[in-house]
Amino acid sequence: MALIGVFSDSEGDLQLFDAALQLLSKKGARRFFFAGGRYADLDEWVKIKREEARSATDYSAGNFLQDVSGWLLGLEQADRPAAFGTAYEMQRRAEELARLKDRVVRTPEKGCLAYQDPAVPKKAMDMLGDTLCCVVHDKNDLDKEDMLNAAVLFHGKAPEPAVVQIGPRYFVTPGRLKGGKVATVGLIDYDAKGLRFSAFSLDGATIIDAQPLSLSAGKSKITVK
Fold first, then answer.
1. What is the per-residue pLDDT for 51?
2. Is the distance from CB of 30 to CB of 3 less than 8 angstroms?
3. d(CA 115, CA 123)
4. CA distances from 140 to 4, 157, 158, 195 (A)
């Protein structure tokens, strides 16, 4: 089984961005779909965390870098070493944090500089097992070709988590980190049996519990769950 964290619409709130990554990582995600709303938040989050790591001169089991390194490496609290040891090791962990960007698929929102940059795709395609998925901030940016090709379409710009089935395709949103009634994130787990979507508030409470995405052909009705 593989796990993908899905989140969106942090809108410049890096504390919420950080909380989303930590929660999804604790739940086992090692790759992430960030559907924009603010595209640059990933860059700013990494920059701040690297600066914090570099400025530290001493650290122990309770300090920030150990916590970040722990969830990045998938270690439970009890399995983490009491200290990582040296300034060199601290720098190495900071570089690992920067490489986290390579495991985040992100898409820009309208109005940001990245959205205007022709070198930055407005939509991202990704394979989850044998299922082609599309990630976009605003589902109104999807065109006919996207919906013909992708079986699951992840998007942001939604007030709360939802799974909407239209014919044989699914539109899935994790809700918003900022601007909704509750800050929420999503998690996709997939294996040979298919895909399932869960959604959580940032305190870990379950909002949608392992909703199967049944990708069989021939469905034409609209279902909202």
1. 78
2. yes
3. 10
4. 23, 10, 12, 24
